[in-house]
Amino acid sequence: MEITHNPNLLWFVIAYGILMVGLGIYFSKKVSNSEDFILAGKGLGALVLTGTLLATWTGSGSISGGETSMAYSYGIIPAFLMAIPTIIGILVLYIIAPRIRAFGKYTVSSILEEKYGSFARMLAGIIIILAYVGIVSYQMKGFGFILNLTTGISVETGTIIGAALIIFLATIGGLRSVAPTDAISAILMVLGLAITLPTIFVIAGGWDNIVANVPSDHLTFSGQLSNIQLLGYLLPSLFLLLADQNMYQRLASSSGDQSSKKAQIGWLVAMILISPTIGLIAFAARSLFPNIDPGMALMATTVVMPTFVGGILLTAATAFIITTGNSYLLSAATNVTYDIFGKYINKDATDRQLLVMTKWFIVILGVLAYIIISFFPTVLSVQMYAYTVYGAGITPAVLAVFFWKRVNIYGGISSMIAGVVTTLVWEIPLSKPFDLNSVLFAVPVAVIVLIIVTLATSNKTKTA
């Protein structure tokens, strides 16, 4: 089946965009200082916090990469397995959330500084910026897919429009405006997916017909992937989530530990429902559209469903993309402002100056994100790169702060450098030997270096 553009779907996207811009402007008027902008005044209740956790985590990485691309390219079981890292990550965050709130920091880099010193903060800030700009970039391309499906305009032009919208929404109100709009977007996500799943299965002729039209290996445990290759797709999201600054900032912005706990439970339940649903919809798309870009699988189903149902799903997809994009862009800009500008360039900057600089850095990093996406062939490839840069460069050092009192400055910094260098070498000059994702090597290297260097230098520094 060929994709036929349905311009009527564009009205749903326009309506969502107008709603988000209007709400963003409304909530931006409540921003009075940098804490309001970055942590929403530490006043998020359980419901809004649930929504913003869900909407931020489930972005274009799920509907263009992740579950969608895995279901389309390799099969339904690999897509289902993509939920496991998220579930594990949420459970770990549930345990350490009170300590995250107790730190009361704007950035993960600030947490690392307390344990490993000021150089670690600067290094972490750079690593986070590298990873988050990559994550923002494929949100922009995901929006390009949406406009291509609805209007027929090129993905490149649609990506430019997506970049402008993401940058604008992140700039006007920070987390104070992002969080409540995320909550609305989360509702749209759940509603859109719930309506779409049964509808697309009927249109595709039911499960038996879908199975008959997909490659036979799409029903095996790992599709065309070896087990080690499959593991290479599962680990990056786990190691990103375990120390994701975006999630740490949201947990720190809750009104209290009880609100945080309730929100994380709600987030867990929602992900258990949403992740397999995305995979099933994309799997049905594999039957209907056997020759499209894997990243378009879920969104392609919108053009074969009744306009209202397709419009709801496309609105949900837009919500996934926009909320994740502006959240990670805001978080990356926070690093530039507080870990680089405020730390080394203008140590005496006022709160107002820091707020203004954060907005400027949102724009600069947003433009950089748009440039970066042109260097990666697929959404899934840039997703794996960005997740691994963060997961190997940041996560082992962060988790050691919470779980290993003996870790020291030498071990922490060495681990961060080793994780990033291994990732970049594996991905760029070596070009992913054996078609294995770098996470399989970068994370073990980072952990081993952390342990060995800490033990070897334990007599040179005081333990925490």
Automatic annotation (TrEMBL):
CDD domains: SLC5sbd
Top-level taxon of origin: Bacteria
Subcellular location(s) per record: Membrane
Keyword Membrane listed: yes
InterPro entries the UniProt entry points to: Na/Glc_symporter_sf (IPR038377), Na/solute_symporter (IPR001734), Sodium:Solute_Symporter (IPR050277)
UniProt key word Transmembrane: yes
One Gene Ontology molecular-function label: transmembrane transporter activity
Residue ranges of the TM segments: 6-27, 39-59, 71-97, 118-140, 160-179, 186-207, 227-244, 265-285, 297-322, 360-379, 385-404, 409-426, 438-457
Protein topology in the membrane: Multi-pass membrane protein
GO CC annotation terms, alphabetical: plasma membrane
Keyword entries, A-Z: Membrane, Transmembrane, Transmembrane helix, Transport
Record PROSITE patterns: NA_SOLUT_SYMP_3 (PS50283)
Family to which this protein belongs: Belongs to the sodium:solute symporter (SSF) (TC 2.A.21) family.
Protein name in UniProt: Sodium:proline symporter
Organism: Guptibacillus hwajinpoensis
